[in-house]
Amino acid sequence: MRKITTEQLLKSAKRNILLILIPAILLFALVFYKTVIKEYKSYKSTAMLMVTGQSKDQAISYNNIILNEKLANIYSGFLESSDLYSDVGKKMGGVLTPSEIKANLEYDVNPQGGVISFTFSDTNADRAKDCLTLITEEFRNYALKLLNMDNINYLQKPQLEKYSLTKGMIFSMAGLFAGLLLGILLSILKEILSDRIRDEKDIEDMGLRVLGNIYEDEKACIYTTKSTINHLTENAVIGITSINPKKSTYDFSEKLAQTMSTSLGLCLIDSMGENKNVEKKYQSSEEDVKILRYKDMDFIILREKSDRILDSYAFEEKIFDLKNTYNYVLINESSLRGLGPIISLRYEDYKIVVVNENISMEKLIRKIKAIEDMGCKVLGVIYDK
């Protein structure tokens, strides 16, 4: 499991902003609908009944309390009777069906206290109060009729509860904050479990040499790469490639070559023909390699379908001639998904690999191992967002 710092958490929050906002918005909308929009059009009537002793003069004893507790449990069974709701429906004049009455009723039984609480919801205020009054009266009649017990009294007669917009908004905001917290937790969990490269520190933690971060400081990255090449290599052919097929390395390769050419003999090869400033007539083939002078450096641009050129013996011999002529030969290549970087491994001494945050650490390790298994060393890795 990966360890993450506060700074990485903040960066993760920026990357996963939708993951944080979506649960918050959904929970806010759900609670707002239930507590504000839906409840705004609904009225609630509440009542409380209490199971008391058989005689008002009878002193309260432990046995009476136990008896009342058992009676409360027995009486609560009446509320499951469909006949009770049918009787209420008839007295309501058929305005509500028995199933609607039962669905709109909520009740809670507290056996220890012998208290039964009722809540009835309806879109009509008078109907909400009248229906709950009939329910409680029928409930008391059932106890008297079936058990001959007249010991259920009102602790609170049916009354309408005033709708509170403030209460609904408080619940809605609580839902919003709960959603934000959930989103943050999901973001942290995603970051911990993710195998994706977050920044150059992840690359360093893998034991790989980091040459810089193009996205944050391209100039520093170029000079770090130049110094690394100058101090760790000598008279070498170096390929510059990317793992991401959508990321071109040409701009970086050209700027690096320009920087190096001020103090070192260098030739840059554009194997992808990405430079659009050079006319096609100056492009090279395997039989005719043209060395141009471009921006104060020696430059070779290959024609389209360069894989065939890179794979030719004539071009391979030319590469070795260039190596004997220059201190360094830089080859700007396609991504590692293409054939070019694989073909050129046979005459390259080093590769520089550009990665971004969409690449998994496992994939980067696998690609680097494949390069080094072919006898070419990876000089370093460059991070580009």
From TrEMBL:
PANTHER family: FERRIC ENTEROBACTIN TRANSPORT PROTEIN FEPE, TYROSINE-PROTEIN KINASE. The chain crosses the membrane at residues 17-36, 169-189. GO terms for molecular function: protein tyrosine kinase activity. The keyword Membrane applies. Keywords: Membrane, Transmembrane, Transmembrane helix. The keyword Transmembrane applies. It comes from the Bacteria. One of its GO terms (cellular component) is plasma membrane. This is Chain length determinant protein. It comes from Anaerococcus tetradius ATCC 35098.
